[in-house]
Amino acid sequence: MTNEKFLSSNSGRLFVSELITSQPPRIIDTNRVIIVEEGSTAEIICLAQGYPEPTYTWYKNADLISDRIITESSSSTLSGLMSNNYLIPRFRILTNSILIEKVNQNDAGLYRCIVNNSIGSELAETQLIVRCK
């Protein structure tokens, strides 16, 4: 090292970021109760932060909601709609929320969101109430 100092003819940028340490998931946005009219669309939100990034698991009452399509003929109340002989899911899992289209009375219930990472987990519950038209 020479300890010489030079003034740069070019400008530069310095980015400073916070040191990220492992943190358990923490739910930062959710709804405790959602009231919707039958036939409308409902969105159940469960927004969490943590490091490593948390994963989400969803339940309706005691039933696991997964990415697979569940039809009316199954034992679950989660269903799809038939259109041109294709099953269109009414339930869409969008990582930190569930979108339910054409809500009906069978969709009412207690929805649980569990966020989890290698440090810990947290739970949020949302009661979905469906009002008749």
UniProtKB/TrEMBL annotation:
Its main location: membrane. It is a single-pass membrane protein. The keyword Repeat applies. One of its GO terms (biological process) is axon guidance. Residues 25-129 form the Ig-like domain. It comes from Euroglyphus maynei (Mayne's house dust mite). Pfam families: Ig_3. PROSITE patterns: IG_LIKE. InterPro entries: Ig-like_dom (IPR007110), Ig-like_dom_sf (IPR036179), Ig-like_fold (IPR013783), Ig_sub (IPR003599), Ig_sub2 (IPR003598). It is found in: Membrane. One of its GO terms (cellular component) is plasma membrane. GO terms for molecular function: cell-cell adhesion mediator activity. This is Ig-like domain-containing protein. Keywords: Cell adhesion, Disulfide bond, Immunoglobulin domain, Membrane, Repeat, Signal, Transmembrane, Transmembrane helix. It comes from the Eukaryota.
